[in-house]
Queue: 3 jobs
Job 1
Amino acid sequence: MLSLSELKTEYKKILPTAGQKQKALEAVSALNLSRQVTNFPPIILNFVLHPGNIERAKEMMRLLGELYPNARLNPYPAQSAFSGEFPVLTSGQVSTLEQVIDDVIERHFRQLEVSIDFRVVPRLHYHLLLKAVFLAYPNDPRRISEVLAGYGLWRCYEDSLLTSRYLQIGAGEVQSLRPILSRDGKRSSPGGHPGCFWNSGTITNTKITVWNSTPQQVRKHIIIGMQNLAEKSKRPCPGCGFPRLVFDEPSVIAGIPHTPGYSPLLTNYLTLRRKYGGY
């Protein structure tokens, strides 16, 4: 475990443009601080499950729980649909992921009664959705991998129940550190646009930023602007399964594709909800 001075030394070595590395060291610093300060508030650790860690995921989460008892683990499968990439998990890894999901679901209840090796963020509805994917497409690991990667899930621009309840900040199409002149002579910003953090080609409004917008402009964007932008997009986002977006029960229901007749994913989710939630 690195000391505070060692963390400072490592932090200074990171390039200013390497934001993810900076965030990683900042997170370790906060975790170390949580061990030293009494009554430090719980820390949420997002734990992305991908081919590089899926086989050791439980072991790694147990170790994090041992080192940082104040941490709450938030495991979820890596997303690739928003960038149009292939699903990242193989058939064998999908099977391992199901075991992790089963364990996380049970932990939601056990951590309320006894002390366990690591605690998870109370987000039962989200993990029931993940489990429902396995039940909806048995013996089809490829399809399971696709849905877990976001394909066909939570298209924010298709349902006003989704779009009107949140606001994301996107990077837009300008990827320069310095503001540059746009065609109309105004300074464009590389970030700060109302839209999607991960996909800039579907719902991101590059004409305004959150710091030069009025409340009315932001409201218009989330009520009708996102749908209008998506209709004009040549390659709309295929879907998303990030837990920070599927953040409560209404989001889960609205984000599951609703097709005429029998919907295996929705049916299995509702079955699991009744089993674990009682309604």
Job 2
Amino acid sequence: MKQRAHRVLFWSIALSGVLLDQASKYIVFRSLYHDGRGGEWDLFPGVFRILAQFTQTADPGDRLLSPLRTWGGMLQPRVNPGALFSLGVGYAHVANITFALVSSLVVVAMVAWSWRRQSLQERWLTVALGLILAGTMGNLYDRCVFGGVRDFLYFYWINWPIFNFADCFLVCGAGLLLAKAFWKAPAPEKQTDVMSSSAGAAAESK
């Protein structure tokens, strides 16, 4: 039952994370479309804003994925074809395909691993991997549909690279894995100590 409960937790986190990531992206880029000019919401003046930027490239509307691309407007959002911190952005098309393939392999591997009998034994490991899967799938959707990742969260106080919720899930999941790796669980009692104590107690009772 413990393993089954952890599997439910894993998929709940992964699917909820994907829904939150995609819903936030579609809502922001639709709300701040403004005829393709883009816009922003300054949530914390001088510190943090929500930012939507668009290119001058319009989707023709007659392609297979056009309904997914044009819900907010015909002009396409500006995307990051690279990884976090715009890694690989200088080779946009190649970078996007490469990271999409890597993300696909990660998703397949994690899904297959999650159904193994011995997987998902620990709660914190389950949470970490669920967050990583959510972030990977959220950005993979963008790469397949938009040719890059839609970013809109901007800490402009320190000029931090623009990011999204999927990136947050990936960083939090990786952070939990790192913390887990350095967390020292209490050492189990040695079998010999237990046997010695039992033998001593038995001797005293005679």
Job 3
Amino acid sequence: MASRVDTDCPLAGVLAEKLRFARHDLTAQWLARIAARVSLDPNRVFPTNQLLDHVPLLIDGVADYVKNPAAEIGVDMPVVAKAMELGELRHKQGFDAYEILKEYEFLGGILFEFFTTTVQNIPEPCGKGELMACGSRLYRAVTIIQQSTMTHFLLLADKHVAEREERLRAFNRVISHEIKNRVGAILGASGVLSEIADMPPNKRGELVEIVLRNAREMRNTVENVLILSRTDKDDPRQHRHVRLAEAVGEAVRQVREAAQGAHIDVRIVPGMPDIEVSAAVIELCVKNYLSNAIKYADRTKRERFVEISGSEEETESGERQVVVRVRDNGIGVPTDKREKLFERFFRAHEGMNAVEGTGLGLSIVRETAESQGGRAWAEHPDDGGSIFAIALPLRRKAGAVERRLVETSNTEARS
């Protein structure tokens, strides 16, 4: 049973109301505290308005518990649901457990500091026991919300690890089979070359081409394995930013020889937006798209082309993003194969003997884009060919978070 101190404290209701009234100002303090003390880019900590919609609601939940401790914070309460959503958001952003604990440490400190300052200006009589009870309820409320966020975050993290382990086992099986076949083809062709000295030139040329083709495919396979196993911290190029046109130009340079061999005109559409992008991300994605366009060119067409265009666009939620599209006039993608295009090891034209590969290229693009908070997709024009695109978020302008909080606070104050 709750004691009289818990239920009749005259201070609790006043503190709760003041806490609700100041929730946006407290949110702003919380954001500023993290940005000042944690070595994270503020645009990574607070990438969208979604987080700003969560924090005031969490503070409302704390205020409710401070005012009415008899109403225990249960798993079915809205504040717990919001805390769990925050855990999911942090998981998507790639945060670790320490960063989440640090965030709540800051939030708890700000709320206790607010209580300490506020209670000195409240005329209602209050005993020491009642004051300690309010502080205890505040601590318990923050702790329960933190546990809800952390529990959901760890649940998602464990699920993610299990999925990655299963994909890794499947990946190892496919790659081992792929490399084994390539090595067998190289050994077989080179063995025949070494045993038959007076082989006709045309036959020798075919065997040499088998060796070269399989060696090239093995090299591509190894490069893909290295890309998939690399993390942002392992790759210093992830931290190098260049102009968009420069990154696209480098990707084109890397496939120039293959494009010339296939008689494909690769061209960059003028008007690329003058913005900075991650060199590694753009080069990787565009190069894979270009390689696919070259592989699946329509050999029956006299003129074969690939066009790369870039634009700065706005999402449905109002966020800015850079979009790069790679369009070709190749053979296109069969309608029944389009849904699985970006899955690992999937090949839309499995029966084409002249086209070889592991089916990793598009999945690498998708995973790379999503790791940056973006997305990858394909479009299929009615007049043939394909368009493969990526969209990556642009860095939000400094001060946008703070301006929104001020605007919200002013609106509430006027109302």
